[in-house]
Design goal:
Number of helices: 13
Helix content: 25-40%
Strand content: 15-25%
Number of strands: 22
Distance between the termini: 8 Å
Oligomer: single chain
Largest sheet: 4 strands, mixed
């Protein structure tokens, strides 16, 4: 889908979309309780739909009405096929959960998702005698996860650690997860621990980044509400940096979400050249690159893991910003956005099939006007993004 956005800033009050990070985790905890419970504030993004598909494979029945998902005590037929679509979090969260049951399970997804790999779990599977077989769009496992002590790198993705924290409490025997490197994206682990605690699961951090998990624990059903999302709200608040008279309602400023760091980072951008380490909030990279391009430039470190996102985000944004007249230098673990004059592109911009790049480019498009190819990528996390912009005076239309 190609979207044409005319020059012209939005106005008014945005409502923060629901937090995808909390939604994933609350849905999984609810499903694992095996009892009736309700999760309110669910947005039907592609990632969330992938998680709900995987819930069915666990033999958990639910009904959805609007933004409310009601889990039922009566189970659905057990399955062994998990359709993760393009959701890395769904894939990484559910693999240990499925392996806690034992037997054969198959995880399917796009070629891009499968190519991103599950290196951390491959090591764990080898320790447990679990076989792993790849095709271009699936991963097949055969075996059962065991309790024990697992040493896990913390500088690849926190999602691997979250997956283990979901599964290990349900196993016979106690377990320990030791993080062997610096733990990047620590706030996502804090969100996981918060959700697990709400559902009665106790995990003790005995030392820095060493988690003790008692076995044979039971998830206790709870009715929960998903809080507002800082990750996607950053794209809405970004319009303010461009001079738009906007604000965002519905955010919990005491939240454990790491992406609330955007509030401070945006203030720094307002003051001039941005220098920041985003290793704990890498999902903010596209919007920060965009705003630095619009303002005084910046030098952003902690960008190494952007290569394994939905696209190679640093290189993709460098390519697109060059169409807007801004030079970007990409290094191994840093990105430099050079100061320049933003101009309307002569060719369409591309989302690179990445929801966050599509939204970041949309922000800049309101300043200069632009067409964006692959705009449907926003459906991964914020399917009504363009409808929201239209409702706030942005002129954007789908081109045939």
């Amino acid at each position: 889908m190609k979207i044409k956005i005319e020059k012209g800033l939005p106005s008014g009050v945005f409502n923060a979309p629901p937090s995808k990070s909390y939604a994933h985790r609350l849905l999984i905890c609810s499903a694992l309780s095996g009892e009736e419970c309700t999760v309110s504030g669910i947005a039907p993004s592609e990632d969330i739909l992938a998680t709900l598909d995987s819930v069915k494979a666990l033999g958990v029945a639910y009904a959805q009405s609007g933004d409310v998902v009601v889990f039922q005590k009566k189970g659905a037929p057990l399955g062994n096929e998990f359709n993760c679509r393009e959701s890395g979090s769904t894939l990484r969260f559910f693999i240990p959960i499925a392996l806690s049951r034992g037997g054969v399970c198959v995880f399917k997804g796009t070629e891009r998702l499968i190519s991103r790999g599950i290196s951390v779990y491959e090591d764990i599977c080898a320790l447990c005698g679990i076989s792993v077989e790849y095709t271009k769009d699936s991963i097949r496992f055969d075996g059962k996860l065991r309790s024990g002590t697992y040493e896990v790198r913390g500088d690849i993705s926190s999602q691997f650690i979250t997956g283990l924290l979901f599964a290990l409490p349900m196993l016979d025997g106690d377990s320990v997860v030791k993080i062997t490197t610096e733990l990047e994206s620590r706030p996502y682990i804090d969100i996981t621990l918060d959700c697990l605690s709400r559902f009665g699961i106790e995990i003790v951090e005995r030392a820095d980044n060493e988690f003790y998990i008692k076995g044979n624990q039971k998830y206790i059903s709870q009715d929960t509400i998903v809080e507002g999302d800082f990750s996607n709200s950053a794209f809405l608040d970004a319009f303010k940096i461009l001079g738009a008279p906007v604000s965002v309602n519905g955010l919990n400023y005491a939240s454990k979400q790491g992406d609330k760091a955007y509030l401070e980072l945006f203030e720094q951008i307002k003051k001039g050249y941005l220098e920041a380490d985003i290793s704990s909030c890498p999902d903010l990279a596209p919007v920060l690159f965009a705003l630095c391009a619009y303002c005084e430039g910046g030098y952003i470190t902690g960008t190494r893991r952007l290569k394994i996102k939905e696209s190679d985000r640093a290189s993709a944004m460098a390519e697109e910003l060059s169409k807007l007249g801004i030079r970007v230098d990409v290094y191994e673990n840093a990105v430099k956005i050079n100061k320049g004059e933003l101009k309307a592109p002569c060719v369409p911009l591309s989302s690179h099939n990445d929801h966050r790049i599509a939204m970041a480019l949309s922000v800049l498009a309101t300043a200069v006007g632009a067409e964006i190819d692959g705009a449907e990528a926003v459906s991964k996390s914020y399917p009504d993004f363009f409808e929201v912009l239209r409702a706030h005076s942005v002129k954007c239309e789908e081109l045939k």
